[in-house]
């Protein structure tokens, strides 16, 4: 069986788990009557493929428009009469890089079909669609440069942590969940005898770069260092040591709805993922159990920094171990070590992280967890009434007040003038109005001055 045939056998519908039929670059679930396209040859296996495409197009538009705003701001700063020569040089370099970066992003992400979507910057700000605000197109942008340019020591340290967790036992079919810019999946494939490595992420920018460099192409993108040591933007050539041998595949999908058949892998790797997923760790244990065949191993590494709103769900290592045992895992081996993290030579900012890694062997199947639903039906289908619960009621009231405050900005009124109007409208008492308006405008002022960070 070729590696492409093995991949075909591993894939399943993210909506109903049935096998998929392939026709060219499109896969189809006959039962759900849904076609799953490919984007730049990468299977696009989101449960709602068109909605996901729309969301990522929206994110890309938003990023491009924000970039253009940043560029205009730099251009405006360059127009000032009195600038030091060094300041002018820095701003010119930044303005050029920001413009060029927009062009490069647009070209790289053209396979998303960008022209099919256009809305104003403000509309994106207001709508903030489903992808969590902290998981945008450029959230893990620095990983691209670490993975494929300057991160040799970090990439080696990550691979060593993974190799130690494997304890000399190479899997046949490995899945890397939340693979990001793809270096660890690439190294696993290049530096071991694994037959199939599937690297899944939901971020098309990361996956497109990873796929291109793993095929042996060079990609040029700017790095914008957090604390520049020299230039504010550095054009990097991203490249893999060599094109990957057959059997390394990238897949665009949601880790909550992994589009794979039950028990298809003998290793699932989760690098820096488990604590950023909004689902509870116990649910993730059950999902990973279902992806592994008997005796397969879950190889995890990264931090344990759970953010669940429920403090009881922010597990420490002992609680993770107990959850693993409850969800069908045994022979759990844990390691902790320090590694360098995102130490760009172009930046004065760098981190060291104490990572936890474990290897846990699947001992038994457990009860299947329900399919993940990111959104309720009244949003997805759009046919049911929007529920008017307490949270929505108070958000709606707050938004009306905000809209009223914004509508008073006319370039003439002062905070004191506006406070009077707020009191007349009986929205606040005279004592509350002025301090509340001042806090409101401080936030708006800060937001309007916040720069973009890549
Ligand atoms: C902290 S980064 C780690 C990236 C990579 N594993 C590494 O070590 O460099 C987390 C990754 O998980 C991806 N991710 C987050 N939520 C996801 C989801 N629901 N489905 C798929 N990927 C997800 C992000 O796009 C990002 O690439």
Number of strands: 14
Question: Hey, roughly how much beta strand do the residues contain?
Answer: 15-25%
Mean of residue pLDDT? 91
Low-confidence spans = 120-131
Model description:
There is one protein chain. By secondary structure, the protein is α/β, with parallel strands linked by helices. Helix content is 41%, strand content 18%. It has 14 helices and 14 strands. The strands form four sheets. Strands 10-7-6-11-12-14-13 form a seven-stranded mixed β-sheet, with helices on both faces.
Task: List strands and helices in order, with pairings.
Blueprint: H1 3-10, E1 21-23, E2 26-29, E3 34-36, E4 38-39, E5 42-43, H2 49-78, H3 85-108, H4 121-127, H5 141-150, H6 152-166, E6 173-177, H7 183-191, E7 196-201, H8 204-214, E8 219-223, E9 234-238, E10 248-252, E11 265-271, H9 281-291, E12 292-302, H10 317-326, E13 329-341, E14 351-362, H11 377-380, H12 390-407, H13 415-424, H14 430-449
Parallel strand pairs: 6-7, 6-11, 7-10, 11-12
Antiparallel strand pairs: 1-2, 2-3, 4-5, 8-9, 12-14, 13-14
Helix pairs in contact: 2-3, 5-6, 5-8, 6-7, 13-14
The structure holds S-adenosylmethionine.
S-adenosylmethionine binds next to loops.
Question: Which key terms come to mind for this protein?
Answer:
single chain, 454 residues, alpha/beta, 7-stranded mixed β-sheet, 3-stranded antiparallel β-sheet, 14 helices, 41% helix
Task: Give a brief outline of the structure.
The protein has 454 residues and is of the alpha/beta class. It has helices at 3-10, 49-78, 85-108, 121-127, 141-150, 152-166, 183-191, 204-214, 281-291, 317-326, 377-380, 390-407, 415-424, 430-449; strands at residues 21-23, 26-29, 34-36, 38-39, 42-43, 173-177, 196-201, 219-223, 234-238, 248-252, 265-271, 292-302, 329-341, 351-362. Helix content is 41%, strand content 18%.
């Amino acid at each position: 069986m070729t590696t492409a045939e093995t991949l075909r056998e591993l894939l399943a519908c993210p909506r109903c788990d049935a096998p998929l039929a392939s026709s060219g670059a499109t896969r189809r679930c006959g039962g759900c009557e849904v076609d799953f396209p490919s984007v730049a040859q990468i299977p696009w296996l989101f449960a709602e493929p068109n909605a996901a495409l729309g969301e990522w197009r929206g994110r890309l538009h938003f990023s491009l428009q924000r970039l253009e705003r940043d560029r205009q701001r730099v251009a405006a700063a360059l127009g000032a009469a009195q600038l030091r020569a060094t300041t002018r040089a820095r701003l010119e370099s930044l303005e050029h890089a920001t413009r060029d970066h927009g062009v490069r992003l647009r070209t790289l992400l053209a396979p998303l079909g960008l022209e099919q979507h256009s809305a104003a910057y403000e509309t994106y700000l207001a709508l903030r669609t489903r992808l969590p605000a902290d998981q945008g197109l450029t959230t893990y942008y620095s990983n691209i440069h670490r993975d494929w340019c300057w991160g040799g020591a970090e990439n080696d340290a990550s691979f060593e942590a993974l190799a130690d967790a494997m304890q000399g036992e190479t899997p046949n079919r490995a899945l890397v969940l939340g693979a990001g810019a793809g270096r660890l999946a690439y190294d696993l494939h290049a530096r071991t005898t694994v037959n199939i490595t599937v690297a899944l992420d939901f971020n098309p920018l990361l996956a497109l770069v990873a796929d291109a460099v793993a095929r042996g192409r060079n990609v040029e993108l700017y790095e914008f260092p957090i604390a520049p040591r020299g230039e504010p933007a550095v054009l990097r050539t991203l490249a893999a040591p060599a094109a990957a041998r057959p059997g390394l595949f990238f897949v665009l999908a949601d880790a909550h709805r992994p589009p794979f058949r039950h028990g298809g892998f003998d290793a699932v790797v989760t690098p820096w993922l488990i604590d950023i997923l909004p689902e509870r760790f116990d649910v993730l244990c059950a999902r990973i159990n279902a992806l592994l065949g008997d005796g397969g191993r879950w190889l995890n590494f990264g931090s344990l920094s759970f953010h669940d709103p429920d403090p009881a769900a922010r597990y420490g290592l002992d609680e993770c171990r107990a959850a693993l045992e409850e969800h069908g895992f045994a022979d759990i081996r844990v390691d902790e070590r320090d590694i360098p993290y995102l130490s760009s030579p172009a930046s004065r900012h760098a981190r060291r992280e104490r990572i936890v890694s474990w290897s846990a062997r699947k001992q038994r199947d457990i009860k299947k967890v329900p399919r993940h639903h990111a959104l309720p039906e009244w949003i997805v289908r759009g046919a049911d009434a929007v529920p008017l619960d307490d949270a929505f009621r108070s958000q709606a009231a707050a938004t009306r007040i905000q809209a009223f405050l914004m509508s008073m900005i006319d370039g003439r009124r002062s905070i004191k003038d506006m406070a009077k109007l707020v009191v007349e409208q009986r929205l606040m008492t005279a004592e509350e109005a002025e301090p509340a308006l001042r806090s409101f405008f401080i936030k708006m002022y800060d937001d309007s001055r916040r720069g973009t960070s890549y």
